[in-house]
Design brief:
The chain has 447 residues and is mainly alpha-helical. The chain has one domain: Orthogonal Bundle (Ammonium transporter fold), CATH 1.10.3430.10. Helices cover 61% and strands 1% of the residues. The protein has helices at 15-42, 48-75, 108-126, 136-159, 164-168, 176-194, 210-229, 239-266, 271-288, 294-311, 314-318, 326-344, 363-393, 400-405, 407-412, and strands at 77-79, 83-85. The chain is globular. The two termini are 39 Å apart. Mean pLDDT is 92; it is low at 3-9 and 425-447.
Length: 447
């Protein structure tokens, strides 16, 4: 993320950069519905709508909070390196239509709406770990609380002028720490509190619609170009173009690495593996893409693809129920991409900081470690505390009967698919019941 600048520069509004950033903002907004499709296809039929809604509700909740106080907390005047505040930004008042974001050629309104889309997406990422078992009301309250006490402060640490990680020199181009490690650690904290799904490691819990998963992954890949390239806040020096190229390169490399691991380990190239590998590459290049070369992006993608493919099976070994591999992909991928900056940064991209392989030693690596593990620890602990408090007050989980019968009907009074007219309606007789589709196993994991 291009940093906020504390002193205003002599700049003029650029119509080109402003238009580009508005397009990028729309692309990032698309990522939340894309995530809903990606997650929605990975769950069983009886949880499809709930999974979609757990992402969509973030578009409403976080948008309102961002207007009321979120933008001010994340990007306002720094206090002790931990949080921001600007009373003129409460309710987005006091901002002129052509007032520029300090040091840049885009209006404040454009910057804040771009950042809003990041704030919306991040809590939605957590939802994949909690599939099948969380009350929708409890989830909505968790999103509001988590955005307030975790995301807004962490965004300030990493990207806000005066934030401690920003001042330390932690490189996070577009959200390896603030988005992916933050969400992955939160997912782990919550599932340690709420426990496993009924039937975990016993009942088949296969994706019900792999085409939906692939659609979601493709839309995520598309939207991620805005997410990454837009984070330089303009197109004046080629860094955004480098990030665009590296986004494509790392994603392709990670997909190939995941599929190669899957073929060697389990004997098949799966569509779910291709989609998951692509997302792993997108996650890993997010913090690193402005600092590494395209060859470095291949390395980042390959490492992330392999590590994430191996990590998704850890839930069976250690017994935590990460329903849709949020920890295995977003936490592990975010850590990998953030730390690899310390090795592959060329000093010729977003800054002159060089990593170990380019003569820079380990100085940047240790800075990356500080950012990674501080965000991980803070998000893990605070998210677990929030889940615990909600569980002890209103309850986080649906009843056992509702979980078994299907959370869609229990929480939303709907079902994803209506098969009542399938197969010809009146022409079907009792002697010829409608066939039931049984999905095949789509990902083999280490049990």
């Amino acid at each position: 993320m291009a940093p906020a600048i504390t002193l205003a520069a002599e700049t003029e509004l650029s119509a080109a950069n402003t238009g580009f950033m508005l397009i990028c903002s729309a692309l990032v907004m698309l990522m939340t519905p894309a995530l809903a499709f990606f997650y929605g296809g990975m769950v069983r039929v009886k949880s499809t709508l709930n999974m979609l809604m757990m992402s969509f509700i973030s578009l409403g909740i976080v948008t309102v909070l961002w207007v009321l106080y979120g933008f001010s907390l994340a990007f306002g005047t720094d206090s002790a390196g931990l949080i921001g505040w600007n009373s003129d930004w409460v309710g987005l008042s006091g901002i002129g239509l052509t007032e520029l974001w300090d040091g840049y050629t885009i209006p404040v309104f454009v910057f804040l709406v771009f950042q809003l889309m990041f704030a919306v997406l991040t809590p939605a990422l957590i939802s994949g770990a909690l599939a099948d078992r969380v009350k929708f009301t409890a989830w909505a309250l968790f999103v509001a609380l988590w955005a307030t006490v975790v995301y807004f402060p962490v965004a300030h640490w990493v990207w806000g002028a005066g934030g401690w990680a920003f001042e330390l020199g932690v490189i996070d181009f577009a959200g390896g720490t603030a988005v992916h490690i933050n969400a992955g650690a939160a997912a782990l904290g919550v599932i340690l509190v709420i426990g496993r799904r009924i039937g975990f490691k016993k009942d088949p819990m296969r994706p019900h619609s792999l085409p939906l998963v692939m659609l979601g992954a493709g839309l995520l890949w598309f939207g991620w170009f805005g997410f990454n390239a837009g984070s330089w806040l303009g197109n004046d020096d080629g860094v955004g173009a480098l990030m665009f190229v590296n986004t494509q390169v790392a994603t392709g490399a990670a997909m190939l690495a995941w599929l190669a691991y899957e073929k060697i380990r389990h004997g098949a190239f799966t569509t779910l593996g291709a989609a998951s590998g692509a997302v792993a590459g997108l996650v890993a290049i997010t913090p690193a893409g402005g600092a590494v070369s395209p060859l470095g992006a291949i390395a980042v993608g390959v490492v992330a693809g392999l590590l994430c493919a191996m990590a998704v099976g850890l839930k069976y070994r250690f017994g935590y129920d990460d329903s849709l591999d949020v920890i295995g992909v977003h936490l592990v991928g975010g850590i990998a991409g953030s730390l690899l900056v310390g090795f592959f940064a060329t000093g010729k991209g977003q800054s002159d900081v060089a990593g170990l392989f380019y003569g820079g030693g380990l100085d940047q690596f240790w800075k990356q470690c500080a950012g990674v593990f501080a965000v991980l620890a803070y998000s893990l602990v605070v998210s677990a505390v929030l889940a615990f408090l909600l569980d002890k007050t209103i309850g986080m989980r649906v009843s056992e009967d509702d979980e078994v019968a299907g959370i869609d009907q229990a929480e939303h009074a709907e079902t994803a698919y209506d098969f009542s007219g399938a197969g010809g309606g009146a022409a079907r007789t009792a002697a010829a019941p409608a066939p039931v589709a049984v999905p095949a196993e789509n990902r083999k994991v280490d049990a």
